[in-house]
Design goal:
18 helices, globular, mainly alpha
């Protein structure tokens, strides 16, 4: 009798496991996920350097443009995820899943716009930069194709956030491993050829990255819809789109501005490096892309912290939120510093892996040292910035960061690099000071405690009782 009743008992919908897993359970798979993600630019740079230093410098110089488009999509999706997580933290799965549906529709539309913008606008940006003819040709070729990868990444990040919300980040790790393997195979064929197929160079590397992104997207779609059977009510999301997307945009709009501004800042630094000379641009690209790998720790911890804090805020557990941020910041600073120190100590073998130019290798130590000094402040920026965004307190920190970048950091970089004659070193010194100032501002903002009143529950309570 009991077995019959169990047979007809409806299956319980999937429940979030974020708080159950905690920071280590969430960040472990995310760490591997980010390790794979940040290995991909190094792999691409390695294969491009097999073509020439100019090919690697070209793609490195315009990579921030791709990062701008990716940041635009990632921040939009994570803003939606923070609202959905707050609702799910309050045990409101109906509105939480409807919010997921609304931001999924929103991000798909943005992904198409971003992809087309990179494909058609990117070559124009490359032409406007002070690049040598060879470097510009490679850059234009790469940008005319890579926009399709950006669009696929935008769709993939929707599923990445869904898996994070439900406490299943391990599937994102498998997805990235698929991406990594497919990318290596594709880049190898593009650079060396395969079974009679001729090498296709930079164009082939861009196509390989796009195909790898498509394989990765297909995998997470299968996991969410068929393995975990998470229901995303698209009809409900469309029906109530305006109401559901409004709080998402309140976080996304200011949050998008900061990473986009930062990547525009990276383009500006590459622009100034190109003015200094091809050597400065090459070393800057190699050092910067190598130290990008250090971000895997702070971003993994930041993403896990964001998922946990959003649900804690939904429950009103503010003391636990503060404790969580302190723990996350400590872990991130220790892990990032150790990894960055390893890069600094092994700077010569790393540089010789990418370039045989003795001038590139010769000035690499100082470039790596200055990059190393920026890492702790960058870690604070990422970890505290993620926490502020997921609580809904995004506007002040984004606006203040943009002000620091364009009113202080860019002018300082130009003055140190060209009028003061410090060249590449001037750019890297300015980058350290930029990270330092922005980190101080974010930490100060968190200590003010205004994030306690910017969550979706607090906003809705205030809207319901304006006099309170």
């Amino acid at each position: 009798m009991s077995s019959r009743s169990e047979k007809f008992t409806p299956k319980r919908p999937p429940q979030s496991k974020v708080l159950e897993k905690g920071i280590w359970g969430m960040s472990g798979p995310m760490f591997v996920d980010q390790a794979v993600t940040y290995t991909i630019p190094l792999v691409d740079m390695y294969f491009l350097s097999r073509i020439s230093d100019s090919a690697a410098a070209a793609v490195g110089a315009i990579t921030p443009l791709v990062f701008v488009a990716n940041a635009f999509l990632i921040v939009s999706a994570f803003a939606g995820a923070s609202i959905a997580s707050q609702r799910i933290g309050a045990n409101d799965y109906v509105r939480g899943n409807a919010t997921i549906a609304a931001y999924a529709i929103f991000v798909v539309a943005l992904a198409l716009i971003a992809g087309l913008s990179v494909n058609h606008g990117g070559p124009w940006v490359a032409s406007a930069m002070s690049l040598s003819p060879d470097v510009e040709t490679y850059a234009r070729t790469y940008l005319s194709i890579i926009g399709w990868m950006v669009a696929l990444w935008g769709c993939r990040v929707i599923y990445q956030t869904i898996l994070n919300i439900y406490g299943e980040p391990k599937w994102n790790t498998f997805s990235n491993i698929i991406l990594f393997v497919a990318n290596i195979i594709g880049c190898s064929i593009a650079v060396y050829g395969f079974m009679g197929l001729p090498p296709t160079g930079v164009k082939g590397v861009a196509i390989a990255s796009t195909i790898a992104a498509g394989c990765s997207l297909l995998f997470v779609m299968v996991i969410v819809h068929f393995k975990l059977r998470i229901h995303i009510p698209l009809r409900e999301g469309l029906k109530n789109f305006a109401v559901l997307i409004a709080p998402v945009i309140m976080i996304a709009a200011p949050s998008i501005l900061e990473p986009m501004s930062f990547q525009a800042y990276m383009i500006a630094l590459n622009w100034i490096a190109a003015e200094v000379g091809d050597l400065a641009l090459k070393v800057k690209v190699y050092a910067y892309n190598t130290f990008l790998f250090c971000l895997m720790i702070s971003i993994a911890i930041g993403m896990a912290t964001e998922a946990i804090i959003a649900q804690r805020v939904g429950r009103g557990e503010f003391d636990l939120v503060n404790k969580q941020l302190k723990q996350s910041l400590k872990i991130s600073l220790i892990g990032t510093s150790i990894l960055a120190l390893c890069w600094l100590l092994f700077n010569q073998p790393i540089l010789t892996l990418f370039s045989s130019d003795p001038e590139v290798v010769a000035i690499g130590l100082w470039a790596f040292l200055l990059s190393f000094l920026a890492e702790p402040w960058r870690t604070v920026n990422i970890t505290v910035g993620s926490a502020l965004r997921c609580t809904g307190d995004a506007a002040f920190t984004s606006i203040s960061s943009i002000g620091v970048i364009w009113l202080f950091s860019v002018p300082l970089a130009y003055v140190l690099a060209i009028p003061c004659g410090l060249g590449l070193y001037g750019l890297l010194i300015a980058a350290i000071l930029d990270e330092f100032v922005r980190a101080l501002i974010k930490r100060w903002r968190w200590k003010q405690g205004k994030w306690k009143y910017t969550g979706i529950a607090a906003r809705e309570a205030k809207a319901a009782n304006p006099s309170v």
